[in-house]
Specification:
This protein has about 180 residues and is α+β, with helices and mostly antiparallel strands. About 35% of the residues lie in helices and about 10% in strands. The chain has one domain: 60s Ribosomal Protein L30, Chain: A, CATH 3.30.1330.60. Strand 2, helix 3 and strand 3 form a beta-alpha-beta unit. Helix 1 runs antiparallel to helix 3 and helix 2 crosses helix 3. It starts with a helix and ends with a strand.
């Protein structure tokens, strides 16, 4: 329960910092499709069978599972123009934290954004997303020294479509193990 409270506080603080520290220079206006109220993707953190890297199978609880190995769910999705972690992804991050703490292997967090917004803004947004995931993992006990972050912004889309479905898939952090 204490972990959940700490995670909530961290996410709240990260949200405050993210929203007060930057302003969007993107092409999208508030209230348009893809705003923060966008419903989450099927399975909350991914669409099973979408062909996305790390969008592995879901267990009965709807979370990526692992049997002593690297967790199968390796993508965390975000709402439009946000870097706050969705509460529903906590289980996925707990699995990765457990794996990392037990195995002490390096992890690279790659932040991505959809195409809306300037290139510079999307690089910064991808970095904020990767850092948000990193901070949650650190709170869960993963040593800081195991985690590196990298942002690709809009440069590596999973789906090149120009619609909400494509944009949802591109707003992500991928957890990459060597």
């Amino acid at each position: 329960m204490k972990k959940l409270a700490r995670l909530f506080i961290l996410c709240t603080l990260a949200g405050i910092l993210a929203t007060t520290g930057c302003s969007s220079k993107g092409k999208i206006k508030d209230g348009e499709a893809g705003a923060a109220g966008t419903p989450p993707l099927s399975g909350e953190s991914g669409i099973g069978g979408s062909g996305m890297p790390g969008a592995g199978g879901l267990d009965a609880g709807g979370r990526g599972g692992y049997a002593g190995g690297i967790p199968s769910e390796r993508v965390i999705y975000f709402d439009f123009d946000r870097s706050e972690i969705r509460p529903t992804t906590q289980g996925i991050l707990e699995q990765h934290a457990g794996y990392l703490s037990a195995n002490r292997v390096p992890l690279r967090l790659e932040g991505h954004a959809d195409e809306r917004g300037s290139r510079e803004y999307n690089l910064a947004l991808g970095e904020r997303r990767a850092e948000a995931v990193k901070q949650v993992l650190i709170i869960m006990g993963v040593p800081d020294s195991l985690i590196t972050t990298l942002s690709y912004g809009e440069e590596r889309p999973v789906d090149r479509g120009q619609n909400e479905t494509a944009w949802q898939l591109n707003r992500r952090v991928e957890l990459i193990y060597p």
